[in-house]
Fold these 4 entries.
Entry 1:
Amino acid sequence: MNKALHSLGEYVLLMKKSITLPQKWNMFFKQLIKEIYKLGVDSLWIVIIISLFIGTVIAIQISLNIESPLIPKFTIGYTTREIILLEFSSSIMCLILAGKVGSNIASEIGTMRVTEQIDAMEIMGVNSANFLIFPKITGLMIFIPVLVVFSMFTGIIGGIGASYVVDGMTPASFEYGLQFYFNQFYVWYSIIKSIIYAFIIASIASYFGYNVKGGALEVGKASTNAVVMSSIMILLADVILTHLMLT
C-alpha cells in the first residue's frame, strides 16, 4: 500500500511539473507535430487493419448465432454497429494502442533517462518533464479521436463486406440495421472516452519511462509495466465513464 501511494504521489507531482505552459512555444509546436505523426499517424495502419477484420468477424459471428426466424436479419447490422461504436473502436482499440504507443513512449523516455540526457536538460535549466511529456500527452489526445473515427468507419465497412459473402444476411438488411435507431451520441461518447484514454496511456507511459533507474534491462521492465498499468486504468475508466455517461 505504501509503495502504491508513493507511486501515485510521484505520478501526480510529475504531471504537475509536465502540464505547464511551455517555455518556448515554437519548440512546443515543433515537438507536438512530431509526436502527432509518430504516435498517431504511424498507428493509423494498424487501426485500419484490425478494425476491418474485427468488424468482419463480429458480423459473421452474429449471423451464425442468430438462427431464430423470430429475430429479424437487420439485427445483425444493428448489433454490429452498437458493438463497434460503444466499445470496440474506443476501449478495445485503445487497449491495443496502449501496447504500441505506451511501450514506445516508455522506452523512449526511459532510454533518455538511463543515458543521462534528461539530467543534462535539467542542468541546462530546461523543464525536462514539460519538454518531453506535455507534447506527447497533447499530441495523443488530439489525434486519438481521429483514429477512433477511422476505426468506426473501417469496422462497419468490414461488416458490410461480410454481408456480401456470408449466407444468412443480405447487404440490404445489414445496411438497414446500421441505420436502425441510430443514436449519434454514441459516436461522441466513444470520442470522449478515447480522449481520456489517450491521457491515461501517454501520462502513465511517461511516468514509468521518466522514473527508470538502472540500465537497459530496467527500460524493458518500465515498458512492460507501462502497458500493464495503462490497460488496467483504461478498463477501470471504461466502467466509470459508462456508468456516468450512459446510465
Entry 2:
Amino acid sequence: MANVSVIGAGSWGTALAVVLQNNGHQVTIWSAIEEEIKMLREKREHVSKLPGVRLAEKTVFTTDLKEAVEGKNLLVLAVPSVFTRSTAKTMKEFVEERQLIVNVAKGIEEKTLMTLSDIIEEEIPQARVAVLSGPSHAEEVGKGLPTTCVAGARTREAAEYVQNIFMNDVFRVYTSPDMLGIELGGALKNVIALAAGMADGLGYGDNTKAALITRGITEIGRLALAMGAQYETLSGLTGIGDLIVTCASVHSRNRKAGMLIGQGKTMEEATQEVQMVVEGVYSAKAAIGLSEKYQVPMPIIEQVNQVLFFDKPVAEAVQELMLRDKKAEHEKMWEHKE
C-alpha cells in the first residue's frame, strides 16, 4: 500500500482518487477551495462534478498543502493546466528530494510554450516528474469502466512505479519514455476537439468528424516530430486514442464548447455554459506559438484560433480548410514512387 495525495479535487482528480482507493492505497485529496473540501467530507462524493461516484471513508480531505505533500510516496498533480505553475510554486517548499510527482492535467503554457512537466521540473527541481495520460473521461473512470492510459517518465523505474500504483483489472496502464509526445498529444487534441464540436454545432456529419480526427493527428504529429517526440506515441493511446474519445464523446467539455460555438455562441458564452475549464481554449494560442516557432503548418488549429479570438464565423473557417491548395495526402509516397 502507498500513501498518495491527489492535488486538485476536480472530476479527474476525484476519479483517479477512486482508482487509487480501490487499489488499496491511502489517499488524501487537496483543494484550495474550503467549500469543496467541506462538501467532499460531508457527502463523500463530488456532487457537482462527479455525482454518484463514492469516495472511501478513510480518504482524507484537506486544504492544507503541507499536510497533503509531506511524507507521501506519490503526488498526483490534477489541477487545471492554467494553475499548474502557481500550484507547483506553492508546493515546492514541502516537496522532498526525489519525491515523485505525476502530472495528469493536459495543456501547454501560453506564454512560455512549456509542457506541464517542464513547468513542474522548473518550479520543483528536487522532484522526479512523470505524466499519466490517455483516452480517459473521468465520468467513466469513476464508474470503473475499462480504460487504458500511458505513464511516461524519464526513467523506466519511475514509469513502472506509476504503472504499478494505478493499474488494476479495469484501469490498464502502459509505460513510455516519450513524455513530450504524451503531453503534446494530450494538450493539442483538445484544440482539434473544439473544431470537431464546432462541426457538430453546424450540423455536419461523420465524414467531417473523421476528416478532423485524421488530419488533426497529422498536424499534431508533424509538430511533435519537429520538437523531438516519437511519432509512435502520436499513433497510440495518448495521440489518436485520446483524440478519438475527445472529439466524439458526450463527456468532452472541449467538444461541447465547440458545439455551442458552432451553434452561434461566443467563446465566453460557451465556456461559461460548460461550467468547467475548457483546456483547448488555453492550448489553442500555445499551439499557434509552437507552430510558428518550429515552422510547422497547422491549418485546423489556425482556423480554431481565428474563430476563438478573432470572431471568424465557423462556417467560413470550414470553407477555408476545404478550399486550401491541392495536396497529396503523403507527399513522400509520390517521391518514392517516382
Entry 3:
Amino acid sequence: MKIIITGAYAIGTHLARLLSRNHEDITLIDPDPDRLACIGSDYDLLTMEADPDSVKALREAGVGHTDLFIAVTPDQSLNLNCCMLAKALGARKTVAKIDKPEYIEEEMEDFFCRLGVDELIYPEALAARDINNGLKMSWVRQRWDVHNGALVMLGIKLREGCEILNRPLRELCGAQDPYHVVAVKRGSDTIIPGGNDELKLYDLAYFMTTRQYIPYIRKIVGKEQYADVKNVMIMGGGNTAINAIKDMPAYMDVKVIESNAERCEELNDLLNNHEALVINGDGRDLALLTEESINNTQAFVALTGNTETNILACLTAKRMGVRKTVAMVENLDYVSMAESLDIGTIINKKAIAASRIYQMMLDADVMNVTFLMSANADVAEFIPKEGSKITQKPVRDLGLPQGMTIGGLVRDGEGMLVSGNTQIQAADSVMVFCHNINMKKIEKLFI
C-alpha cells in the first residue's frame, strides 16, 4: 500500500513510525527539515522537504497512485486543501485532521466527499469519547463498548482484594464462564494469555464480557467499594474538555478549573446549555481543590496542554483521596512514567487519532480499531466475509498466529464469548486482540 502523510508533527510522525513497521510504502512531506530530521533514520520511509499543497511536490511523491493520503498538519484549512488536491490528482482515499466539531456532523459527510475529502479526523472528539468511557466506572482503567454494549472490554488494575489471582486461566475462563481475559500488562511486558497463565497482583488485565456480567466482574476483582462517578473535576478548558463535557451523562456534575480568565468567559458561553461550573484557578492549588470539595469528587481529569502539569495534578488529586484520575499525556515518553505513578486512565490524542487512521488501511470490513496504549496492543472489530478462512473451522483448529486472540463476537445483535468450539460465521462482528503482530496478517483471515 502506498501512503503519503503531510505534516511531520505529533500525529504525522507517530503514524509514520507506526505504519513503517508494517513495511508500507510511506512518504512523509513537510517544509521544515528539522521536523523531518526528528523522524530518525531507523524507520523504513521516505521524507520530502516541500510544501504539502504544492502540486509539483505531490506529483513527485506519486500522489496519482497513492492508496491513502493523510493530511495531519496543525492547519485545518491546509489539510482540507491538500486532500482536495490529492484527490483531484488521483489519490484513492484521503483523510484530513480538523479542529471544528461542526465538520463531523453526519449531514456534512457527503459535502466533504464531493470536495474530495473522504474521512475527517477530529482528535479532540475521539479523546473525549475515551475519557467518558473511562469515567463511566471509577474502578476501570479503560472501557470499550461494542454494538452499544453487547460486548464490553474492561481494563482493570488488580489489587489485594482480587479473588482470581494466582490461578491458571483455564480454571477461570472456561466455555461456561462469563468473561475472558484477553490481554495482561505486567510491568513492561504485555501478555496475550493462554490457559496456563495466571493473573498476578498489580497486573493490568483486560476482560471481555457482556453487559449483564459487569457487576460480577466488579465483585471478583474486589472493586465493589469504589464509589461510582457522579462528581467530576476537570483541569484545563480546551476543546477536549468541551467535547467531553457535552457528551457526559446527565447524572454527572462537572467543575472546570481553567487558569486563563478570558478562556473562562469563553467556556461559560460555550457550555451555557450544560451543567458545568467554570472556576478560574490552578488545578494544583491545594487550597482551591479543598474549597471546591475535592473530597466529594470521584474523578479528576487533567487536560491541560502540559503533560508534566497533568501528571502532577493527578498525583495531587490522588493524595487528596480521589480514586479515579485521568491525564492527558501528549508526550509518549511520559506514558510509562504516568503508569508507574498509578495515574489511572491515560489519554494520548495522537495515538487515538493514529488508531482511527490505521483502521482505514485495512481491506477487511473493520468497524473499529483501538490502540491499548498501556498494553501496547491493538483491539479491532472485524466482520468476516463469506468463505473467509476464519469461518471455515472452529476457533481451536484455525491455528491463530502467536500474539493474537479472539475475545468475543456479536451475532444478530447478541454478544457472546468465544471458546475453542466456536464456529465464526460471515457477518459476525469479531473482537480481535493482538500484540507485536502486523494487523495486515490478521486481516487475511477475514477476507
Entry 4:
Amino acid sequence: MKRVGILCASDTELAPFLEAMEVDRVTEKALLRFHEGTIREIPVVTVYSGVCKVNAAIAAELLIEVFSVDAVVNAGTAGGLDPKVRLFDTVIAERSVYHDVAEDILTEFHPWMPSACFPSDKGLLSAAGRYAESAAHPVFFGTIATGEPFIENKGRERILRKHSPLAVDMETAAAAHVCYVNGVPFLSVRSITDTGEDSGVEVFEENCARASEIAAEAAMGLLQMWT
C-alpha cells in the first residue's frame, strides 16, 4: 500500500492525526519529529514543520528523501480570501501559488515551470471530490496562495486581484514546490480559521483547534478513498 507523508505547520494541526494514529516509531531529524505508523490502516509518516515556507519545504523534502513517501498531503488551517468561503469551510487546492514571489523566478529559472502555478495531483483531487460528496462541512476547490505574512485586511485585495485564491496560508506552495521538483503527488487540505469579516490573529487562535480537526478529518477521509 502507498505510504503517505502528512505535513502540518503546527502541533495543533498535527494533533488530530496523532490521536487517530498507531505510531510504530519516532525519528528526529533536522530538529523535527517524524512519526511513522498507520492511520485507518494507511501507512503514514506525520510531522509538523513549523510555520513558513522554508520550514514546510525542509519537512517535505525529508518526507520524500528519508522516508520515501509516495505522496504528501499538507493539512491544517488557512485564512479565507474569497468572500464565499466561511469559517470552518474546507478548501482543497487544485493549484497553489506564491503571492510574494515574482512569477518569472519559477518560469525563467529552476524549476522552469510552464506557469507559476503548482498543480495538485489529479488522483488525490479525484479522491477529494468523492469525499466532498458526503463531507460534514462545505468543501471548496480552487487556488491557495502562499506567502510569509499573516494576512489580515492589509494586502487582501491585491492578492485577490492577482491570484483569485479561495484561501491564503504560509506553507502550501512551498510544499507543492518540493513535490513538483521531485515528481511526488501533492495535495493541500485547509480549514478556514479567519476571513475578511472575522479577521485577526486572535480569531485565528480561537478557531485553530476546531479547524485543524476538520482539516484532518477531510484529509483522512480522502486518503481512504485514494488508497
